[in-house]
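Renewal narrative, Specific Aim 1. Our central claim is that a sequence can be written position by position from structural information alone. The example that follows is taken directly from our test logs and has not been curated for this report. It begins with the structure tokens describing the chain, in the order in which they were read.
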């Protein structure tokens, strides 16, 4: 849990190390990401019976591109709903313009709608960014490979993931 004693102790240790040795802590975090990537790479290669020279980074780039294309693709119904919402907004602004006979009111209202949409987009983007950071942190904390060696000391035993 987030508020457990060990979690709070870990957070305090990280905070104090960052405050006392900021450059060293930044270098440690950078190296930790690289080490965990190689752990995940080894686990992925062994789990899928791939050759040792398999380029996991190229595979991830291709997979990421495929997922990005799937995310960017917007369904026809969504386009129709967006077009309908925009047309409804213009229709309602036309009614307001007809009743008030003031272009300034309509212009100000449309400007605030645009600014509101931009601010909403920023907040949604920030929420996605935090979610992706959280997912990355969860992957980095996973213990996919047991670091203890066997009796002969020549190989590393893989842990079974309960996920």
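The sequence written for that structure reads:
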């Amino acid at each position: 849990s987030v508020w457990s004693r060990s979690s709070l102790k870990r957070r305090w240790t990280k905070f104090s190390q960052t405050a006392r040795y900021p450059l060293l802590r930044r270098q440690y975090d950078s190296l930790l990401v690289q080490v965990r990537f190689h752990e995940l790479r080894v686990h992925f290669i062994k789990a899928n019976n791939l050759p040792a020279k398999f380029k996991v980074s190229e595979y991830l780039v291709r997979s990421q591109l495929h997922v990005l294309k799937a995310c960017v693709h917007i369904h026809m119904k969504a386009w129709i709903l967006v077009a309908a919402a925009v047309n409804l907004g213009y229709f309602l602004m036309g009614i307001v313009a007809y009743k008030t006979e003031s272009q300034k009111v309509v212009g100000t209202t449309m400007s605030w709608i645009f600014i509101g949409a931009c601010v909403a987009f920023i907040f949604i983007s920030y929420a996605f960014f935090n979610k992706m950071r959280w997912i990355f942190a969860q992957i980095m904390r996973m213990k996919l490979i047991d670091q203890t060696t066997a009796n002969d000391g020549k190989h590393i035993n893989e842990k079974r993931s309960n996920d």
